[in-house]
Amino acid sequence: MHIHTRPRSSCSILTLNQLYNSLSKRLEGICITDHWKVNPIRKISFEPYKVFFGVEIASNQGDILAYGIKRVPPNKRDAEEVINLIHKQDGVAVSAHPYSERHNAFHDGVFNYHFDAIEINGAIHKKANKQAKRAAKIMDLPTIGGSDAHSQSQLNTFATKFQNRIYSIRDIVFAVRNKKCKAVRI
Ligand SMILES: [Zn+2]
Ligand SMILES: [Zn+2]
Description:
It contains 4 helices and 8 strands. By secondary structure, the chain is an alpha/beta fold. The chain has one domain: Alpha-Beta Barrel (TIM Barrel), CATH 3.20.20.140.
């Protein structure tokens, strides 16, 4: 649910070939979330994995993952505006790595916004994920798991288990909104 690919995310060295060749057999699908780009990469076949596209947006207060939107909210806006723009498009907004010390992250500010889920992130410290889990519990929100991979070695850490079958990004939106998902270790 959180993967950065090269060349679409300049911070990533993970090519599509490397991504395909490194995916755990335990995964049924992936969601690529490049920065500010949500349009699908054309002509990629990841059989037997399903491939979906979300996006990571840096708001003034912290990074936000969005799923189910077509137009990406603009740069350097307040989180409230970004989340509203996501919800207006019938998408879901997730607080990415909320307690990370080395990312653009909400920390306790996460409680001030209308998120649909909280992310458990494979690229950060255990303690930060513990705090994220706690926030999700207090906010009565589901968790999603993502590797936040920028390279091959960062793949296959956390994934998201859905209660319903996922065939489209709309199925992901439905599951998150209805709290039918949770972060799991791979
Ligand atoms: Zn981020
Ligand atoms: Zn990221």
